[in-house]
Amino acid sequence: METPGATPPQLPSSSRSGEWPLGWHVSVVQETGSTNADLLQAAAAGAPDRTVLMARHQSAGRGRLDRRWEAPAGENLLVSMLFRDVPQSPHVLTQRVGLAAISACQRVAGAKPMLKWPNDLLLGGAKLAGILAQASLGTAPVVVVGIGLNIGWAPEGSACLGAGIDPLELLSALLAAYDELPADVWLQYRQHLGTLGRTVRVELPDGELEGRALDVEPDGRLVVVDECGITHRLAVGDVIHLR
Which residues, 6+ apart, have CB-to-CB distance to 26 below 8 Å? Predict the structure, then answer.
């Protein structure tokens, strides 16, 4: 059942429950501020593992580095997933969601995006989707992973899959693809990471670094060799592909 707005922490049920992959608890709302924020509230109230909240529109969606993420109502996939089964390296969850999104785009739209480190999807070199994880790592750790994926609309300079694709269909394909991933996704993530082999500029909290992206390690760090031949292993940063 779709509702006029989000009602966290008690989330509405979905009339498509029989169509979602088993083990996922999916709710769909017309509008909310932020699906990530709603699920963090829902987690505090006891929402189960693999609770999913999709919104037709977000009025306060955020991407990495607190950038605003907003799209016209009903055009794009705006969804967050709550995970209580948190791996030792929580970044694996964002990698899994990114890989599942690639598979869903291929199945539903015939598109073949690639990943940009650490967690963007690119199509034709332009941004198709962004992924943002937020954690509450107390005695009962919880990670909420949100993804905004352009379907029928994209801001200037970004990519979209194209009109006529139902965000609900794409979400169902994404959840199914997530379940099909192996326990260890590092090799798949590395294979789909278009950043590798590229000259990049990495914007860091204390400056920037330019060099060649050589590899990504199992712990998620990007290996970049600068023009002086010095190797850097980066855990955080905003990457720009240069050439």
Answer: 14, 16, 17, 20, 52, 53, 54, 171, 175
